[in-house]
């Protein structure tokens, strides 16, 4: 810290050892911390609490090393108990046969495929955040991408189970894949059901790679911290209760193996950035392709209500809609339960996601309207009948003939949850209230499940000939399998919060003021730094070296 | 961080790579094995009562038609195993005046007369077995379409004791159903095993005169080998 060697200050700053001086107060009326600032010339800070880089590391690693808190164990116990129901139900199904579900000759796809599409759709928010928002340089993604990617993987796990068990003879599930066999038969390559297998397995693979690769530097941090503690504490290090292994020894081994020899060298970072960008590029089309292909399962058939060209974009918008709702459902409680997380996931993040929910909610609302328009404009009697008398018409509006749609309650639940409930986000105070966002996200999740139920069951339960009409009633196995899959999802997510880094530490540090190479304090030099915020772009003039004002 | 991992772990990547190669080879090997005749029990030749019915003598040397014993092959799905009385029709005491009168032959065929006398069936062991999720192989349909016995059973007339000549796998069935020509012969030649065998050695299967005859017959009868699941599975 001397005028002779000013670069040391820069180095110290970039190493995150320096705290940023108090930023100029750009008040916003709600939070008073500037995270909701409306002035377009001022960037809202993405990390609050004026933290150093070390604070971020301590916070994120602390969730793993100190544990998330007393609430975790009961929550995990509850979630894993619910998850075990999945095992029981799937076991019962395999032993007994698909007859234990409510499926029948008319409705041969119901909750199984509803749940599949529901879960696979939820994953899309993670891919959108990690791929498309990365390519578009949306810096606010950095504190939510890890959790969203994790959620994607877990949603795909839950989704993948359903096509596997709905085939009846589960031990023949390998026949979904084109594997050479002595039966000389292959899957039907012109069937979207096979494309689905490829789409979903590609999606799972790329998402897993993306998620894992992003975590490598964070694993290395956890490894180094564990190793350093071991060296410091020696034989006094705390051990696991029964096995007697030192906890940090175990951490160093496991995170060490997972970090694949990462040493934080600049060459590593260089390769990492390139690989990250490439994976983002590969994942971007997947955001659009996966749910398009899932929609082909329906759209390429000739069933009225399925045979619709609008399905691919409609499904993709719906998937992102439902996915963001799930991200919010997980992150809003996390903000409360994990200490310090409110500084990393600010109200601005929640507001941004609320805006995405509003936008995509409009897209699905438009798609719902278009379906009716095309049914009317296309003048196909069967299609019009499906939309009016299988879905829309409630009994109290039925005409003289008394015809009404038996599943009208499902349709109107979907409309209320997906189209009406996000409309509260037009009001600023609503989309800035975590409680309101949480409630809307919950409604949207319910609505998106009903959307798939409406599409699948109402289209199937009345075929062309009235003799083929019949209702679908879910059996207790149907219901418990779905409940169990929610438990599985939550169990996996809780394990993630306990053992894996919930934030991409390096990326968060990148959007902090200290990481800006031109940052030298908020206007301390009095020439042109007045708008310096968290993610402020550098300015053009190169600074002459001058004495730093902050000590190291 | 040399303190984290012991030195032997340096060999782990090599071991993992080796393991991957072994695992991959095993997987390919197992799938490969499922295509081989060994997996499908080709050559299965159980021990039969009385040393077995000698097809080489009866159908080969003596030139008996298959349908003398397997009398329902053109009418039913099962190519029936003949009753003891069919055997006894020739092998009863006092029959076969000129042929096979040697004491050795008498001794070898005694079990037939014993069974006939006691009114018992002879427990022949079944060789060509299909799984229970496949319907009985409809012999009448195949013989009626001009598929020679030889295509599925090999030249039985050369077998002293019958063995399984073909894999009987689903892939093997479909190979013919997708391209029946090499196996088609004229209806009149279906059971003439040596005829068919000789012709088959003449040139490219499927392009022989014998196949052309079969095809003509096949087309005239408007036969079509089905490939849908329900053709063979209930």
Please sum up the structure shown.
Chain A has 552 residues and is mainly alpha-helical.
Notable traits:
heterodimer; A: 552 residues; mainly alpha; Formate dehydrogenase/DMSO reductase fold; 59% helix; disordered C terminus; B: 234 residues; 41% helix; 0% strand
Can you give a write-up of this model?
The complex is a heterodimer of chains A (552) and B (234). Chain A is mostly helical. Chain A has a single domain, classed as Up-down Bundle (Formate dehydrogenase/DMSO reductase fold). Chain A is built from 18 helices and no strands. Chain A has helices at residues 7-14, 53-65, 72-96, 111-122, 124-135, 145-166, 192-233, 247-258, 266-299, 311-337, 341-344, 347-377, 381-392, 408-420, 428-431, 434-460, 476-499, 505-510. In chain A, helix 7 runs antiparallel to helix 9 (266-299), helix 9 packs across helix 10 and helix 13 crosses helix 14. Chain A starts with 6 loop residues before the first helix and ends in a 42-residue tail after the last helix. Mean pLDDT of chain A is 86; it is low at 522-552. Chain B has a domain at 130-231. Chain B is 41% helix and 0% strand. By secondary structure, chain B is mainly α.
How is the topology of this model organized?
The complex is a heterodimer of chains A (552) and B (234).
Chain A: H1 7-14, H2 53-65, H3 72-96, H4 111-122, H5 124-135, H6 145-166, H7 192-233, H8 247-258, H9 266-299, H10 311-337, H11 341-344, H12 347-377, H13 381-392, H14 408-420, H15 428-431, H16 434-460, H17 476-499, H18 505-510
Helix pairs in contact in A: 3-17, 4-6, 4-10, 4-16, 5-6, 5-9, 5-10, 6-7, 6-10, 6-17, 7-8, 7-9, 9-10, 10-12, 10-16, 12-13, 13-14, 14-16
Chain B: H1 12-33, H2 55-61, H3 66-69, H4 84-91, H5 103-108, H6 110-118, H7 139-144, H8 149-153, H9 170-178, H10 193-200, H11 209-220
Helix pairs in contact in B: 4-6
